[in-house]
Specification:
Helix content is about 0%, strand content about 50%. It is mainly β and about 170 residues long.
Length: about 170
């Protein structure tokens, strides 16, 4: 992602990647997981569990595993994203689409979210969002949080919520 330019397509091979992605001011970026590294093919509907981004890291500030900021017309598809605060945080981005992912959040702080859209538009489609709350901190966390006056299309997302202070969608 560091060397991507506008309208880039990034194909990520199957595997486990211990990192976080910070995508700033890139238009038209397409990031897809589930690719076979030998011949760079993938099934039409990629298995999101074959490409995992592990966003746990105690040495850095707790942030989103994938942060998308001022990056319109972007697609994130075909990943399992594991973290402790927010899986995918979309800010100030129009037509940002998050589709076909598994997002697993072991909640470490208040206000956690599987997917968060702030001042953004786009589609959130066919994601599986797992939120686990070990300690009851009496702060609500949500699978999807929408802090935007604009339209975001939600369709066929599945929530697995384990804990007392969890909700599916916050508007």
């Amino acid at each position: 992602v560091r060397y991507a330019v506008a309208e880039s397509e990034i194909r990520v091979a199957k595997g486990i990647y211990p990192e976080r992605l910070n995508i700033e001011k890139l238009s038209g970026l397409k990031i897809t997981g589930g690719w076979d590294s030998e011949n760079w093919t993938r099934d039409t509907v990629a298995d999101p569990t074959s490409t995992v981004i592990m966003g746990f890291d105690d040495s850095i500030e707790l942030t989103a595993v994938i942060l998308l900021n001022h990056s319109p017309n972007t697609l994130i598809q075909g990943f399992t994203i594991k973290g402790s605060v927010t899986g995918i945080d979309v800010r100030n981005s129009s037509n940002a689409d998050v589709t076909g992912n598994v997002i697993h959040i072991d909640i470490a702080s208040e206000g956690a979210a599987g997917i968060r859209y702030d001042n953004s538009t786009g589609k959130i489609l066919r994601n599986r969002i797992l939120m686990l709350q070990a300690d009851t901190d009496h702060q609500m966390s949500y699978g999807i949080t929408l802090n935007t006056p604009a339209t975001v299309r939600l369709e066929n997302n599945i929530f697995y919520l384990q804990g007392e202070f969890l909700g599916g969608i916050q508007e």
